[in-house]
Amino acid sequence: MKYLDIENWxxxxxxxxxxxxxxxxxxxxxxxxxxxxxxxxxxxxxxxxVRYLHACMKAIxxxxxxxxxxxxxxxxxxxxxxxxxxxxRADNTFGFSYILYSEDFKEFYQNFQQExxxxxxxxxxxxxxxxxxxxxxxxxxxxxxxxxxxxxxxNKDNSVPQLAFGKLKKKNGKMLLPxxxxxxxxxxxxxxxxxxxxKFQQELDKID
Length: 208
What we know:
Blueprint: E1 2-3, H1 12-19, E2 25-33, H2 35-44, H3 48-62, E3 68-71, E4 74-77, E5 82-88, E6 94-96, H4 105-120, E7 134-139, E8 162-165, E9 169-171, E10 174-184, H5 190-206
Parallel strand pairs: 5-7, 7-8
Antiparallel strand pairs: 1-4, 2-10, 3-4, 5-6, 8-10, 9-10
């Protein structure tokens, strides 16, 4: 665990400004093309969700500012960001998972499957382990949304990025996935969100 040198950070004034706000978060929704990813998952009998989640986590881990978390008066820098995804049960409730990230898809899939099995065999809402070094994410496959709002805890220092993935849609022969992201502006700017979406699309395009 490392901590950011806030005094010599080129975003120091931005950090201080947005921390004065009652709700310093901002969010947006953009489409990513998942044609190759969807086709590959279908042909290989793999989970489409786990495939695009893995690509998402690669992108998250490639953007420095998405690894920053506010801890008191400090900004912690996490070396690795994991995934806390909602996993649905047959009765339409869900549990929060904590999926350890690995660049290796097979290892990531095993970590996902372990958490899925735990959730499907329990009624627990919360995972067995947790760290701020994660993202919170949900799949909402019933709606191809164009806007999205996350619940706000009231803690303006909450700095864990929140993501949601919507229902697939087809446009001009391409399969598009709506992706919502909500971040704390004290740590993350539109530029960094742009970096995330660019890297996410690159990772999706790599899948064959």
